[in-house]
Amino acid sequence: MAANIPTWTVQPPKGMLKGDYYRIEERFPPYYPGVEGQFPADPGHLGIIEVIKNGDHLDFIELNEITAPSYYCHLYSGISKRRSSYSFWQYTKPRMQVAGVTLTMGMEYVEKQMLERQSLVGDFDMLASASGSCKKLVKIAAKLQEQLDKPSKQRIYSYSEDYGYGLTGWLKVVVEDGKIVSCRFDEIFADEPEQIVHPELKRFYRQSKYDCPNYEDPFPPMFDRHAFLVGFRTQMDNLNAKVCATQDLLDLTGLPHSTGRDLGPLWDNPCTEKVELDMKERPLYPTWSNYLRMAKVVLAEMQKDGVLNK
Questions:
Q1: What is the pTM of this model?
Q2: How many whole angstroms separate alpha carbon 207 and alpha carbon 188?
Q3: Rounded Cα–Cα distance for residues 60 and 62 (Å)
Q4: I need a surface site. Which of 87, 125, 131, 187 has the fewest CB within 10 A?
Q5: pLDDT surpassing 70 at residue 20
Q6: CATH assignment of 16-145?
Q7: Which pLDDT does position 279 carry in this prediction?
Q8: Where in the chain are the domains?
Q9: According to the model, what pLDDT value does residue 239 have?
């Protein structure tokens, strides 16, 4: 990573945030056309705009971009730029160092203006060298603005919890017509490495477990190999699919590593007793304990609001 890296934040909104949910996705222009019967066209990067609105007030706006699968750096193909290591890698480029910015900083700069103006439409100031993607995202956002005058069919419950050791959980549940249509959980590292307790996790600062392309869990204390053989991203994709299918936020039955001995947070407040590795029954994945604790909070709020079908 380049030296003298500027500052940006990847932290989610604090605590409980709920309201009407608006989202739009649209592809950027592709880099090259395909040839029918020979090879497909480049799909282009994917721009994403998310908005949470309460009454007439826009409470939350986030711009994001997913790189096309054809991206020239294989590590970052099909990867979210927002909470991955993309901005660190981008800052190794001389032109970005001269400008002193990253794309994430550029997106945050535009979001701040949108919230101040309470509008997704306008002549927004752009940070030099971070404006290319932002200009495209602003055009996509203008299309979403047209929907903000109408009540959304979807409602979101966004809840975050700072665990206290350099990691924050973020659960986002979207409901439509009384049904859960999305359940997304992520764990996000602190903005600065000194805020992260475990030495092996410090390098993931300003990233999330889901979006970081090279994230892997450390070996648990006293283990000589990985205790969990399914990656975090796959775990959370499976969780989303299961919750949407069962409409039950608290049932983890059948999900990988959702049973077994609970050894606590493992990497941040580790079990100090001797642990024998049981290849037949690996320990409980610590993220599941964090998720269930937070899911109970979100479920109670949703039940209070009566947004779920009986």
A1: 0.94
A2: 6
A3: 7
A4: 125
A5: yes
A6: 3.90.1010.20
A7: 62
A8: 16-145, 154-305
A9: 98
